[in-house]
Amino acid sequence: MKPLKVAVLGCGSVGSQVVRLLDEQAGDLTARVGAPLELVGVAVRRLDAPREVKVPEGLLTTDAEELVTRADLVVEVIGGIEPARSLILRALDHGASVVTANKALLAADGPALYAAADLAARDLFYEAAVAGAIPILRPLRESLAGDRVTRVLGIVNGTTNFILDKMDTAGSGFAEALEEAQELGYAEADPTADVEGFDAAAKAAILASLAFHSRVTVDDVHREGISEVTAADVQSAREMGSVVKLLAIAELRGGEAGEAVAVRVHPAMIPRSHPLASVREAFNAVFVESEAAGELMFYGPGAGGSPTASAVLGDLVTVARNQLAGTRGPGESAYAERPVLPMGETVTRYHVAIDVDDRAGVLAAVANAFADQGVSIQTVKQEGRGLDAQLVVVSHSATDAQLAATVDQLRTMDAVREVTSVMRVEGGVE
Amino acid sequence: MKPLKVAVLGCGSVGSQVVRLLDEQAGDLTARVGAPLELVGVAVRRLDAPREVKVPEGLLTTDAEELVTRADLVVEVIGGIEPARSLILRALDHGASVVTANKALLAADGPALYAAADLAARDLFYEAAVAGAIPILRPLRESLAGDRVTRVLGIVNGTTNFILDKMDTAGSGFAEALEEAQELGYAEADPTADVEGFDAAAKAAILASLAFHSRVTVDDVHREGISEVTAADVQSAREMGSVVKLLAIAELRGGEAGEAVAVRVHPAMIPRSHPLASVREAFNAVFVESEAAGELMFYGPGAGGSPTASAVLGDLVTVARNQLAGTRGPGESAYAERPVLPMGETVTRYHVAIDVDDRAGVLAAVANAFADQGVSIQTVKQEGRGLDAQLVVVSHSATDAQLAATVDQLRTMDAVREVTSVMRVEGGVE
Ligand SMILES: NC(=O)c1ccc[n+]([C@@H]2O[C@H](COP(=O)([O-])OP(=O)(O)OC[C@H]3O[C@@H](n4cnc5c(N)ncnc54)[C@H](OP(=O)(O)O)[C@@H]3O)[C@@H](O)[C@H]2O)c1
Ligand SMILES: NC(=O)c1ccc[n+]([C@@H]2O[C@H](COP(=O)([O-])OP(=O)(O)OC[C@H]3O[C@@H](n4cnc5c(N)ncnc54)[C@H](OP(=O)(O)O)[C@@H]3O)[C@@H](O)[C@H]2O)c1
């Protein structure tokens, strides 16, 4: 059988492991694809940089543009917007199928790439872009294709989960936990992309698009990171039997003008009994709610060269088989064209901790502030501490605008000394 | 676009929900498939039986043989060996693609069915056959196609998990927990298929075949049920920070004569820190270990009409798309042709609790029994109780034959009053 020519663009953490597995698993890959996969080139920026893998003589090149024109299958693991985008478009244009792990690019400009894949009648697969090794995109796109997904809750960033887990289990503050994550290689020197939720937001956009068959880009995602999560927030969560997680949330919401998609990334308290609560360290997990299947969870390593390469190679086998069969897998599915709801209209719940004067009438005043905004209260806990008291209020569901306005109003009240913690609550029973 | 004709064989728990979803999701299914799915008939045994769904006028039939000849896509949810097998073969022979949830049939006679699908160049998909709604077969077959799976540990029977969970959380005995499961509809009046591990064994065979690209039938699966698990076993597990679960285990094992597959179903103690330990009630979960991806877990409802129908419809969308594109998905993959290891040669670990005389030299005698069989000991815990003592021994890994011989030898020893609990240990660190 004639081999299929494979070009790998990038030979860093992920690319080096793709190259290694292509070599080590060659026999199995041939049997599973139905033809050998022949590595024809590996594009890098620096020819002489040290590599984690021995790339066969003569295959390293800095000319990615030329390389993609002579491959049947192109693996893009450079990352970032350019030159990744141009190279993918060029590869498709030359008749190659493409596998990529590039969440940033897909979340920023997915539709243009899917359109190019359609035009070329080639596959563009990207399982590795969300939650690393965990098969989540294929299940969403294919296994649940006969069901109606209503909600996806994901822990899709290992760095932030590691930090929040340390804050929970070791009682560390944010800065200390971040430092530990950096020492252990879980966080980068500049941790902004992870800590401020940019990485998770890109993944949330991809998950929302697939789950709801609609176009969602990273600009549609309301994003809050974890840099302002305090030890007090984590403690407050603990006291109500919850844990703080950075969640990527994509929901289907009914509305007057028809169904819409709500998509956001923010820290939230979830009950310890929720399956996502026990996701430790840098692991990822995606929890899916659908009408017929009910609640599903997918759990595993969300990053790392070798796990991510596993997901890349799974896609590679599929697109290679498709190419041999002269067919392609499912392309973009955006037929539902559901609009994205603004954050203010998104329905959520708040946990608010406030220091108040310990005197009669304060609780009533606080309760009134919630009522004024039309927010009903699920629980209030009051703890006197001498002259002042702490009130912890958990609301019922309301729009984020109503809840935010309530907090604003609390801040203006005489009896309120300080709003010490505001955090959304997810995954619970109301 | 010309509709694809769908025949549903069986209209019980699963079939009725398939019929419902085909109707309720018609619009979405059309958009996802690229053509409408038209229900052309529903085969049943009794035309006048009450149904959970309103089957459109004129579609119910008792002539399944005729029905399958006029469908493009056939859903088999009758169950059992015959007439399910003949109907599937007939459907394929007439050019239909088939989706089934029938684990018993696949585990007994899969290869003949796959061969018929190959011959007909049609799809035979069966995601619903293992772990109900949980997408596990597709991830194994496709997402991990570029990786090397080394082990699959599954809780794939909800009835037995419910019973063991009750024994753990409520301290019930087996009979009492079974009765509760029956009252709540989790166990059938004749619970043999579940309780004695037959159902899990069928699923283990299917998982092993896919994970290791080899033919494994239910006859290859060593099977032990949970009817002999006692409250004392569960208590013993609890004391060592473990929990008893009925596991379906499929492993790749190196050996002198090359790699082999070990596949078995039995109760085992797993540490409470293991992700499978927190699978409660009738939920299912499958834990997969692979070389590149590491550890993955898939969790959700393992049964129920509507969850199972979700998995059936996911397959139906794929095979419908394939049929429109004139292609088919991956067929049987048995190229590795790995032999199945007999249980005696399978490597495992034992937890053994024994009542012994409380006198000097007994511990040494017991330790010698292990040593005689070449089994090394990880931990021994001795608890004096007056005249007698309880010894709890956890072994290191050894073949099942060595471990079983050790237990036999213990039973013959003068100082041993009774072997009170013997159970395998899985999922731990040695
Ligand atoms: N790392 C993970 O755990 C992980 C997980 C999921 C997804 N991803 C995604 O996978 C992709 C790759 O990540 P990574 O961690 O492997 O990145 P990385 O370690 O930084 O590697 C990037 C590679 O791309 C090469 N490169 C950069 N610019 C290039 C250019 N203009 N032409 C050709 N090659 C160029 C680099 O060459 P030199 O080596 O010569 O500098 C390097 O080999 C990203 O999209 C990332 O988001 C990564
Ligand atoms: N139930 C679950 O949760 C679940 C989960 C995973 C997989 N499965 C699998 O799904 C399959 C169906 O299970 P189920 O629970 O839906 O079974 P069920 O409730 O017993 O339904 C079986 C259906 O098949 C029909 N039937 C029986 N013999 C027939 C024949 N000779 N010709 C035509 N129709 C016939 C019955 O007709 P009448 O209604 O007229 O008697 C009934 O509608 C089985 O393979 C099972 O292992 C079930």
From TrEMBL, chains A, B:
The keyword Oxidoreductase applies. It catalyses: L-homoserine + NAD(+) = L-aspartate 4-semialdehyde + NADH + H(+); L-homoserine + NADP(+) = L-aspartate 4-semialdehyde + NADPH + H(+). The keyword tRNA processing does not apply. Its EC number is 1.1.1.3. It comes from the Bacteria. PROSITE patterns: ACT, HOMOSER_DHGENASE. GO terms for molecular function: homoserine dehydrogenase activity. Transmembrane segments: none annotated. Residues 351-424 form the ACT domain. Keywords: Amino-acid biosynthesis, Methionine biosynthesis, NADP, Oxidoreductase, Sodium, Threonine biosynthesis. Its cofactor is a metal cation. Pathway: Amino-acid biosynthesis; L-methionine biosynthesis via de novo pathway; L-homoserine from L-aspartate: step 3/3; Amino-acid biosynthesis; L-threonine biosynthesis; L-threonine from L-aspartate: step 3/5. Catalyzes the conversion of L-aspartate-beta-semialdehyde (L-Asa) to L-homoserine (L-Hse), the third step in the biosynthesis of threonine and methionine from aspartate. Belongs to the homoserine dehydrogenase family. NCBIfam families: PRK06349.1. This is Homoserine dehydrogenase. It comes from Nocardioides aestuarii.
